[in-house]
């Protein structure tokens, strides 16, 4: 796990977090009917390069894209393709960046215009689940306390969590300890520590929550074809509110 308590490490993590936030913002701004996820991926990679950063999934896993772009029933790790986005599609933009030896990870789900009631209800439920999870992310809290509030919010709104897909430590590489589940189980009782860097990421299905891996070997999709949504921030744990590294700040510095 990565523990960031020294100012130089916190500053480096803030810098990479802002690259993630700016990359997502530029990709989001380009979303419209007819654009392909390959084109969006190129926009994301160009943004990273402007800041001297690089794609962490490419670096660590040799992922076939700079970013993960999942459509509709795609939950995570969607490989960019040349297929044009259609009106009403749900698109998850998941960006993990490396800069100066540190990594940060974030995701949002957006809807290709025009919006639909079903799509917006799922997006809202997932976004609010993340917001509530962040209120529980304090030094000394067990990781399953984070999962409990995610599961309660998601189920309250009539959706399903996907138990195999969890948050995780991040910082020096993409996936580190601890696992941060989106549900409650007593075995997930590791305590969050001051300075711990974690990615908290509710991933939600409008169906039964079962998943499978597509033929490309990367994209994980809902088994029943139901829509999925995903929101994520990388944070540094403190005794109080966490430092949200991947939230875009007005001046690019937090």
What is the topological layout?
Layout: H1 7-29, H2 37-50, E1 54-55, H3 56-61, E2 68-71, E3 74-76, E4 90-99, E5 102-111, H4 117-136, H5 143-156, E6 160-161, E7 167-169, E8 176-180, E9 197-200, E10 203-205, E11 211-213, E12 220-222, E13 228-230, E14 233-236, E15 243-244
Antiparallel strand pairs: 1-4, 2-4, 3-12, 4-5, 6-10, 7-8, 7-9, 9-14, 10-13, 11-12, 14-15
Helix pairs in contact: 1-2, 4-5
Number of strands: 15
- How widely separated are the two ends? 23 Å
Q: Outline, from the CA principal axes?
A: globular
Strand proportion: 15-25%
How many domains? 1
Task: State the main characteristics.
24% strand; Creatine Amidinohydrolase; 5 helices; 15 strands; 30% helix; four-stranded antiparallel sheet; five-stranded antiparallel sheet; 254 residues; alpha+beta
Describe this structure as you would to a colleague.
The chain is of the alpha+beta class. The chain has one domain (7-240): Alpha-Beta Complex (Creatine Amidinohydrolase). The protein is built from 5 helices and 15 strands. It has helices spanning 7-29, 37-50, 56-61, 117-136, 143-156; strands at residues 54-55, 68-71, 74-76, 90-99, 102-111, 160-161, 167-169, 176-180, 197-200, 203-205, 211-213, 220-222, 228-230, 233-236, 243-244. The protein has a 5-stranded antiparallel sheet with strand order 8-7-9-14-15. Helix 1 (7-29) packs antiparallel against helix 2 (37-50) and helix 4 (117-136) packs antiparallel against helix 5. The mean pLDDT is 96.
